[in-house]
Structure formats: C-alpha cells, structure tokens
Amino acid sequence: MFKKNPDWLGLVEMKVEGEALEAFINQCVKNNISLTEIRRTSSGTKLQATIRIADVKRLRNVAKMTNVSVRFGKRRGLYLLTRQGQRRFGFIIGILAFCAVLVLLSQMVWRVDIEGASPGIEHEIEAWAADIGLQPGQPQWELPPEAEIQQRVSEEVPGATWIGVERKGTTYQFHVVEQHLAEEEEEVAPRNLVATKNGVIRDIYVEHGRAEVAPNAYVEEGDVLISGLIGREESDAEDMEEIAAIGDVRAETWYRGTIELPLEISGEVFTGERTRSLDVQLFGNEWTFWGQDADRLFERHHVTTDQLRIPLYFTNIPLPVERTSYEEKAVVTRTYEEDELAEIAKQLGERQLLRNLDSEAEILSENILQEQRDSGKVKLSILYEVEEDITREAPITQGD
To answer: Does the keyword Transmembrane apply (predicted)?
Structure first.
C-alpha cells in the first residue's frame, strides 16, 4: 500500500488534518487506497501524502468515517495531460492539421528547372514533362522514380547527348548536355589576301598560300600580302596552283582625330541626400501615406519607382503599393587646365577609335599634332599609332 505509484497513472497531492490520523491511514489500507510520499508534522495532527486520482472518491468516504478534513493540491501525470488536452482540443487539432498540410505540400512538385539546354530543347523537355504529369502541383508519389524519368527523357527527347534528372525537395532539375554536330567546312574559292590600308608590317602568319611581304616592309592599300598562287617561282602562271590564301598580317597603321572640349564642363552629380515615399493605388486613384514632398526638399532629383511584392516560394504577388525613391542632384561646374584637357581628349579619342576597330586591334601611342584655343574651348588634333590586322580577301586575277 505504501509503494510509490508511477506518475503516468495520475497523482494528486493532499493535506489531511484531524485527531484520528492513524485510523485514517488504517482505513485507507483496508480500502486498498495507496498512499505515497507520506510526511507527518511534529504536532501529530497533520500529514501530507500523494494518492492516485482514481482513489479520490473512495478517500472522501474514508475521511467522513474517520472525521478528518482533506484538502487536495497539485495534480500530475497522465490524467492532467488528458484534461488539458480536452480543454485545448481545437488547438491540438489545428496543430495536427497544419503538420499534415505541411507534409502534404512538401510531397508536391512546385518547380521544374532545366539547365544547359537551348530554347528549343528546353521547350521539348517542358512539353514532355507536362505529358507525364511532371509539373507544379503534381504529387511526387504519382511520378516515376528519378532514374526512370532520366532514362525515358533521354530516349524520347532527341537533340541531347545526356539528360540528368535530380530531385531536390520540391524541385525537379534537368541537367542537359546537347549534341554539337561538326559543321562541314565550306569550300572556299581561290583568293589572295590584300592590304585594306597603308601601314608597316609588324608580324605575318601564313597558314595557306605564299607570303608576298616581310616584317618592317611598307605596304599600301590593295597590295598583295599573301598570294593564293603556289608553285615553283620559275614556273609560268599557268602552271601555278590556285588555292584560298589563309593567314594574318598585322601592321602599324595611323589614324588622325580631332577632339574639341570646353575649358569649363558642367554636369549633374548625386549629393547623397535621398528620401522615399509609399503610394497606394486603388480604384484609379493614388494616395501617398508615407514620405515627404521631394519637390519641396530638392531642387533637382532623380526618381526611381518599383512595386512592392509578397515573395512566395514559387511566385510573387504584386501589391497595389509603389515605393518611390528620390535622390538629390546638383549641378557642378569644373574648370580644367590645358594639360588635364589634353589627357581627357586622348582618352576620349582612344575610346572612339577602339569602337571603330576590331577587338584584336591595339593602340600603341597617341601624339598631339596641333592645339587651338578659342572662345573657352580647346581643339586638339591627335595622331594615333595602331597595330591591327589589315588583310581582306580578294579574288585571283590574271595579273597576279
């Protein structure tokens, strides 16, 4: 009767007060009521104990028989959890429903990504995936395994050397390696390579044909650089073989440019001051509910507007709220010295020249030939030395 009861049965602490405490304990033993954690006060008229909640009803009868008063205190164990669960039944059901929905959503397909494919192959894979049900909103348990999907898409979608399929959470990823067929080389007609402009040869590379010039030689526009006639030098022209000349000839060429700049240059710069506003657009009307009047704060300003959106996992939901940023601008006037203008003019001329040359051209040097100053402006004439490829194709003629 006095052994400790497990907590999961449901226990309650009690305080007993009266003169017949021994009789109370004896009656509890006779009625098979288990008492645990018994503590008696020094006065002998009070005791504390713990009983099972299931024995409370019988304990009340024993208390009446022995004329003692009983007060119940703290409860613990499975009984308490059950009572709390009954009071919070709706909350528990909500948690369980949320977990069930979360598990269900995690087993759905929310995105299909295709990497490494050209637009045509990507469209074919998207259409094929939609045919087998692989699209957003589809349960994953209704789809074949990734290995089977990979085998089928590789067999049924032509134009790709290899297609890998990988599932990451709610996303299916297709990794595509496309087939690249070697293009047949077009048959090229016999030709020479001639100079497109005057220059001094710096480097010559001949893949097919015969070089007609050497490094450091001066050539003029139209001169043959690489000939498409090959054979022995003492042979007649009729005995020479005609081929398509292939090669590169880089030469030093010259360009002259004129740059005109003012001594004083005015422009707008950002001061770093800024403000923002939020505007609501409803029913064709617009209201500003936060922000300051930029026209009053700034004399000049730059405006940037974007619409607020709620980011979700698979899409963005636009809101009828626009955020506008205003950045203050100021007009600044700067006066340059002639030496500074000369450097600026060289850089401007170099950028303009490079836009008109091929990507492999290189500017070697810049030299100011003439400088004029008039009405607050400086006019500079600059000579640029450039290294570039000067070849162009030309058909073989009888004179060659």
So the answer is: yes
